[in-house]
């Protein structure tokens, strides 16, 4: 098991109230594989550094989790298939 940080940027036209339940559905796979979700932090709508898909804003979500490398890649893959997700970034904090 390794610690991961996942940042997800959602399309700004999505209702912010639906972000939490949709993230819970995707992150349920982590807990089913004996991983843990330490924190899900929904930052809300923020200005992007550059336009993505002709949008200058996005809804940011940061997830801290502990899971296997394969499950982390699977969560990232599933999120990238979601049409409302504009970008994802999966990284290992303090990776040596």
Automatic annotation (TrEMBL):
* Task of the protein: Binds together with bS18 to 16S ribosomal RNA.
Mind telling me which PANTHER family this protein's record contains? Answer: MITOCHONDRIAL 28S RIBOSOMAL PROTEIN S6, SMALL RIBOSOMAL SUBUNIT PROTEIN BS6M
Q: Do the record's keywords include Ribonucleoprotein?
A: yes
Q: Which UniProt keywords apply?
A: Ribonucleoprotein, Ribosomal protein, RNA-binding, rRNA-binding
Family listed: Belongs to the bacterial ribosomal protein bS6 family.
Q: What is this protein called?
A: Small ribosomal subunit protein bS6
What GO cellular component is one of the record's annotations?
ribosome
Known Pfam families for this protein? Ribosomal_S6
